[in-house]
Amino acid sequence: xxxxxxxxxxxxxxxxxxxxxxxxxxxxxxxxxxxxxxxxxxxxxxxxxxxxxxxxxxxxxxxxxxxxxxxxxxxxxxxxxxxxxxxxxxxxxxxxxxxxxxxxxxxxxxxxxxxxxxxxxxxxxxxxxxxxxxxxxxxxxxxxxxxxxxxxxxxxxxxxxxxxxxxxxxxxxxxxxxxxxxxxxxxxxxxxxxxxxxxxxxxxxxxxxxxxxxxxxxxxxxxxxxxxxxxxxxxxxxxxxxxxxxxxxxxxxxxxxxxxxxxxxxxxxxxxxxxxxxxxxxxxxxxxxxxxxxxxxxxxxxxxxxxxxxxxxxxxxxxxxxxxxxxxxxxxxxxxxxxxxxxxxxxxxxxxxxxxxxxxxxxxxxxxxxxxxxxxxxxxxxxxxxxxxxxxxxxxxxxxxxxxxxxxxxxxxxxxxxxxxxxxxxxxxxxxxxxxxxxxxxxxxxxxxxxxxxxxxxxxxxxxxxxxxxxxxx
Length: 474
Known about the structure:
It is a single chain. By secondary structure, the protein is an alpha/beta fold. It has 3 domains: 2-16 and 40-167, Orthogonal Bundle (DNAb Helicase, Chain A), CATH 1.10.860; 199-376, 3-Layer(aba) Sandwich (Rossmann fold); 386-469, no CATH class. It has 14 helices and 16 strands. The termini are far apart.
């Protein structure tokens, strides 16, 4: 408390000294240049001018006061002034009058002209840019200074959060739409209610009708189907529909190589069977030339190895695409279940899929475009593997509609449909007991965590050597 009081006294004495009129010295001076205009301001003066400008601009004051901290200011007196202004605003929800600030500091209003006098109010746009730049720079400076001690403690998570928070500071925050009954607000509200959302037709008439014209921009959209249900074919069909509308499509594959996707696309768009492609070179060339003449969009395919692509890497690729071609594409990811979250740990399929979905939606929003992806709602095991029924163990290929099969929640579920198996990579999991299980990469297993909790996981999510699986013994 004594140190704070001494600091206050020092700052107050300095302000009082500056408030007193300066007396001329009896000592003769050969020449003292008179500077009435263009005087260079020191840092303390600049800080006070910013505070004064802010106090005279209600809208910007409300925007900026939340972000301003006393540590952003070098001058002791300015620190005290901004702290009082923040406390006053939080208590009374209004800008403190100048006399109240001076009274709080123990000064009479005669000191006012020394720091609160504004000869001319800055233009609003300039003041907003200046204030925003000041807050951003000081927020980053504070974050970096705070990170030095954290760096010694290797507290990298807190450092990352501080830097991210500082980078994201922006006073230009939209406060949303509020319903008011005054005439001007009602006009804005009614205009919003009657305006059409920006949509892109999918080319599927029944879907477009249900969605009032198509999917909105921006948005993340999923195609869900069982194994072998035609998800990839559906994404190819979507691509062709968008391309016919003149939209560029970026097709990101994490399962099939570029050649396979291109063959599917050519087959779909030309109706030429895949096995006839080698003998139809001229027909394919003429088709592509005709598409170009009609102003159709561009189809680009990029392959990434499964479990190597995250949204950050995808966003970088999209930025390079936009820089190269000059257009923002529709993004199709085949498929999200083979992506990984941005630099964060996750446990189980639910967390993985949740993070990936949120981050893909962020890519769509950032570039104001549409993202499509797919996922399957059933998983599979290889032929010859056994599942438990009330009558005993049964090979998976012998299960029929109507059978009861033990699920991952340790409850029997009735089989309502059986899908044709699709070709997939098979993984063999060997347990400590020596038992082995052959499954696809997305087959769900219940897993017990170290804290005793259980969750569902798979090889494509976070299942790894050393995990404890919960399985039924033969």
